[in-house]
Specification:
Mean pLDDT: 91
CATH class of the largest domain: Alpha Beta
Bound molecules: NADP nicotinamide-adenine-dinucleotide phosphate
Radius of gyration: 20 Å
Distance between the termini: 34 Å
Number of helices: 7
Structural class: alpha/beta
Oligomer: single chain
Number of strands: 11
Length: 280
């Protein structure tokens, strides 16, 4: 495990010669079996769980487990072909750009992405034919289904709000899952021709109505004892529908992470959200 604090390999700095690709990159060699996997952020709460899950998977081999200060050779030396990033919002984008330059597929669970950062990755990955990057705000299969159910319900309700609840060590708010959920609800409402959600609030304290993503309000709760939870509340005159998902333990994310490791090499380009990996 690397814990050295020398060069982080961000694309924003000059990449080392070993990390520098040709314009479209060399042709990628077939992925060996078992799949050589690197964990980035391996000492973190999610990273430790990823390390255990990859080590327990018959079709994968953990070849690198690195943290802050990782270098290209930590991953290319042992031949990593897929890297799983659970780090911090300030590091994940530069990690992904470095992985693209190295020709390593990326499975990213780190949250805190905005549309500009995703656009930069989308543009960059086009330069490396065949490289796949998955950025998924939630790898729990139940959470992915909850998002799908929310988009399904959205056209039929006047009101929709999202409440996300997490452990107090989480650094970003609202959660990436809640933002993704709100975007899905907003897109479904727009496609159905619905207008803004009803809300007569004309005065109040800042933040009382939460954050607003594409017109959908999101409320963030941070409390000891929680892991990761989400409630989507829909309202019509005289009725309410609540969709709730609870991750009680970080192992809930691992089936989705392992599925992503297996599928990312066959999904070139940037994919956002695990949903598009399911069912194909
Ligand atoms: P954490 O315990 O703080 O772990 C983050 C790890 O990343 C730490 O070991 C940290 O090392 C390391 N790190 C920081 N900067 C790095 C860099 N530049 N390169 C490599 N490693 C670096 O956080 P966590 O609870 O595991 O969560 C990690 C991320 O996953 C968060 O964004 C969280 O929201 C997200 N998450 C996503 C899902 C999902 O399903 N997509 C589920 C749960 C959590 P130091 O401690 O030395 O700084």
């Amino acid at each position: 495990m690397n814990t050295a604090h020398d060069d982080v390999p961000p694309r924003l700095q000059a990449p080392s010669p070993a990390a520098q690709p040709a314009a479209a990159g060399p042709a990628l060699a077939p992925i060996p079996s078992p799949i050589p996997v690197a964990a980035i952020g391996a000492s973190g709460r999610m990273g430790r769980t990823v390390v255990q899950a990859v080590e327990a998977a018959d079709d994968m081999r953990l070849v690198a487990a690195v943290d802050v200060g990782w270098t290209a050779s930590d991953l290319t030396g042992p031949g990593a072909r897929v890297a799983v990033d659970f780090t911090v919002p300030t590091a994940a984008e530069s990690n992904v750009h470095a992985l693209i330059d190295l020709g390593i597929h990326a499975v990213v669970g780190t949250t805190g992405w905005d549309s500009e950062a995703l656009a930069r990755v989308r543009d960059h990955v086009k330069e490396r034919a065949g490289i796949g990057v998955l950025v998924a705000p939630n790898f729990a299969l139940g959470a992915v289904l909850a998002m799908r159910f929310a988009a399904l319900a959205a056209p039929y309700f006047d009101s929709a709000e999202v409440i996300e609840l997490h452990h107090p060590a989480k650094v970003d708010a609202p959660s990436g899952t809640a933002q993704h959920t709100a975007q899905g609800i907003a897109a479904a409402r727009a496609a159905a021709g619905l207008g803004p959600v009803p809300d007569a609030t004309s005065s109040g304290m800042p933040g009382a109505r939460g954050a607003v993503v594409d017109g959908i309000h999101i409320h963030s709760v941070r409390s000891r004892g929680l892991t990761a939870h989400e409630e989507i509340v829909f309202g019509n005159p005289g009725e309410q529908l609540t969709i709730r998902h609870d991750s009680f333990d970080r192992t809930s994310f691992m089936p989705g992470v392992l599925l992503a490791v297996r599928k990312v090499p066959t999904h070139p380009g940037l994919t956002v959200g695990l949903a598009s990996y399911l069912g194909d």
